[in-house]
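Appendix B: complex inputs.
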Amino acid sequence: MSSRADAARVATPSMKLLPDKLTRMMFGLAVLIFLVTPLVLDDDFWMTVLANAGAFAVASIGLSILTGFTGQVSLGHAALLTIGGYTVGYFGADHGWPMWAWMLAAILIGALVGVAIGPFALRLKGNYLVVVTLALVFITGYVVENWTSVTGGFDGKSVNSASLAIGPVDFGELHIFGRDFSREQGIFYLCWIMVALTALVGRNIIRTRPGRAMRAVRDRDVAAEVIGVSNARYKIAAFAISSAMAGLGGALYAISLRFISPSNPAAELFLSIRFVAIIIVGGLGTIYGAVIGALLLGPLPELVQEFAGLFDFTIPIVDRPLVGDSPADNGIFSAASFSEILFGVLLVVFLIFAPEGIAGMIRRLRRRLAGRSNVDPDNVSDN
Amino acid sequence: MAERSLLSVSATTLEFGGVSALLDVDFEVESGELLAVIGPNGAGKTSLFNCLNGVYTPRHGSILFEGIELVGKRPARIANLGIARTFQNLALFANLDVIDNLMLGRHHLMKTGLAAGAIWVGRAKREEIANRLICKDIAEFLDLDQFGSTPVGLLPYGIQKRIELGRAMAMEPTLLLLDEPVAGMNLEERNTMTALIQQVRAERDMAILLVEHDVDFVMAIADRVLVLNFGRVIATGTPDVVTVHPEVVAAYLGAG
Amino acid sequence: MVNRSDDPLLVVTDLRVAYSHAIVALQGVSLAVGRGEIVSLLGRNGSGKTTLLRALTGLLPYHDGRIVDGEVRLAGTSVSTMSASGIVSAGVAQVMEGRRIFAELTVDENLSAGAVTLRDRRQVASNRDAVFSLFPFLADRKADQAGYLSGGEQQMLAIGRAMMSSPDLLILDEPSLGLAPMVVTRIRDIVTEINERGATVLLVEQNAAMALSISDYGYILSAGQVAKEGPGRELESDPRVRELYLGAALGTSHG
Amino acid sequence: MEKFFQLFVAAIALGGIYALIALGFVVVYKATGTFNFAQGGFVLLGAYLVYQFGDDWSLPFFVALILAMVVMAGVAAGIERVVIRPMINGPPFTIVLITLGVLLIIEQAVRTLWSEPAYVLTTPWGNGVTEVAGVSIRHVDMWTVGFATLVLGGFFAIFRFTTIGIAMRATAFDQEAAAAQGIKVGRSFSISWAIAGAVAVVAGAMLTSRTGSVLTPGLSFIALRAFPAMIIGGLDSPGGAVAGGVVIGVVEVMALGYLDFDWIGSGFEVVLAYVLMIIVLLWRPNGLFGTRAVQRV
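Resulting structure:
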């Protein structure tokens, strides 16, 4: 039998990258939108917002592998983004490393920190581990503030001069087909290309032996051990992958923001919670869920700020607008508070009413459509 | 040299907070043999299994498998040596489908690591396809191929029991531990499972050690029977010898 | 023996129970426990005994189970939809399988925990005295942490704790499990004594000989249904009981 | 030596506050198995409520404090009933994530309801200092030690000697067996959360009056420093929470007082608590007094 025929015989939706026609169509559409958006939306502010969403998506895919596929919750994700950001600041901007080199550095340093958390992941169950990842936030904050020679301390660090070129292509000043793109548009492309690569890597790991082992550890750790899956190895591996992706995401985020500076641990904790909200709303246990979550929730603060006008209707009794654009507007909520509250509310509401997130909704919708038209109703639960 | 037993358990004692769950347990399992362990609730049967595959560490004693000491080894390591197990209350990966569950049984026979997996093209893909073919055969053999990509947690209990057997088969063990393979099954499921276990034995060269409450089932299927009570071995022998052993009858019917 | 048709304390009618995980549950069980009786419930592992008890005592929600159909009546009142604490207040106490004493609490606190449904402090005090008269060693070890008692002592504490709520019906789930034969005999005597002091007893056992020897009536469950029922003596000598309960091979070879 | 005594009193006072926060946390964890990140939010909201009732509505301080405790107890029990209880049998980390969401909401709600950047909480002790044998002791520290002792003592008395306490401990040990005795498990949950809410108010008020009497939303972040306390003590041990709290308080104050090398930099005292926690965890994965989780196959 030919290997092609073998492959066809064993093919299941969980094994294929794009399991069916509809998924392939949706993917094609996504690629098209990606290519066209900078051409249509010629606005640097929104380009930056979308590039940030891409950076968040890269990091969210990492968290999704850790939490969704291996069942370990982390509140240290924001700290890893910070580490990635300073890595590009130090190597990329200060030392002029080429793009491939600082990206690799961000990935490797992220992975190393992840491996360092690993031993705790083995010894500690669930809740204790969550607090150790919280410790990472505090410790990172302390190091960032005090290791001034590398981080610039309280003053922060400009990332602007880091190279964005790979080979002949410079994302800082793209020229394609005689058209010039702004830095923001270039970074948008860069970020979303990295999203695609990260998603591909994530998906490949998930559909092969290591990913299956991680899911086994998540579902039943003792049983996994008994059939020969080492909990130790895969818990640490999940932290390493997740942290590497967070490091890359953080580097991209810093590039997009052009500047990186320390924020207090509470803010870092809230940023970590935002990542948790992203993967929950997007849908745990899927890679594309993390991307959808990041795309929808990543730009939330900017969207709320931009569209604060929509919420500035006056609430009768207190006679103040619901959301005030600026302190002078005297809104019940400031735009920043309102978006944070939205994160919290979305997190709680999704966990209670739609724990499978948007990916789960899509799955159910497709199953219903398939049921009606009698197409192959294969659902893909774990991809 | 005298022929060595596949598994030899000697003077094994397991304690929980001063109470012995197993006390000086001695027995051997020969290659290809089916040995059944019976005994009243709380006799120590599941504890024995947990010692064999490294979930518990006995206080003292020795467990040799193909001449290798198992006491002190981690479960994953013991699995790699060729001991597979099913669980009393099922230990499947509920969110994964049948093939993925079986594939996990082959985990220790595969090599793809993070890097190869991330790249996919090449070795990872080849290995994935080759092993999926094997799992598909097992699924067909156990009549499980009809369940497609449904998460196994949603399948009926009897089917899940069969998937667990399949996962153990996928591990290609030399010794298979079955913890109550027919518990909680109706008569029809029970008959299917009996036939399957006999078929597995006929097709593959492996020894089976099984724990079961259902004495009928044990008598029909076992080469030898070992009876545990209060953590001690009270009788060993062929089914017809054991069933008339006075201590066994007393243990089952109660001393009262 | 009590006349069984005469206004039983507990009546279970065509009870069906399902779990969300598809383990065999109850498929239409009917039985009755008369006032003052000792009734035993026998069956192999997985035959549905514990499920039936959970249904009687309102503990199904802890196992993702629910009563699908049928009814449980206690002294004429339906308790099928009552909460666990409501059922205890209504007069049913249970000694759970595996004892389940509160190991971190003292012996005395365990007894107090058994009496939370009582409002009357004097009643609690007199129940405590009654328990101590039944198990004098508990009085000596009042202040000890319950986890340090031996297996048999823990079983007696569990029985004492259940007696603290002044139950009309005492349910015992495998009280002899994992205990040495001497202790089993002691437990049997205690169950008889509790019954003589006025409580109706429903006894779930796998030690058939022990259970049937003190029972007025017995039911044998198999695969979620009542396979056989009859007066204790009768079941004890019935060869088919051995077959159902212990398996044919062992049963016939012995009989 | 005088410096040491001065620091020591402050350390015990801070330790008492951490012990209170950790206690609220441990009570909920022990009773319901919920790892409640919102406890930091309770501390924050509790302190603002004391300000609202005392300074804004001009109620006497102790009336305001008790009123705030009652309100916070209700809020905490309400949160448990509405968003935690329905999920109690859900996947293990769902509830942790929900409490994170609740923390986010409380924090922003506080910023919204009290929109000034900082408030001054008026207390009977103010900034008073008493000189004892050459050591100046701040009144707030003495009050804090007194309050902490009172609240902790009251809690342990209830926990140990009353029927409610026995019911709570029984529920914490084995929910199903507790229900089988007729204990209303849901009520034990509500009471645990209510206690957590009430002690958070005391901790919040003391923390606020300690930090030079300024109340800011940053308070919930200070409350996060109590995490190492309960981890060191063991998540399910109320006594351990108190011990852990005192240890962290002492370490933090002493580090701040004595470690003033340049290379250590700022904020080391906070990190130190976490570093200490990590060391303890590597040595004893369930904390100093926590029970070991029994793993079943």
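DSSP finds twelve helices and four strands in chain D.
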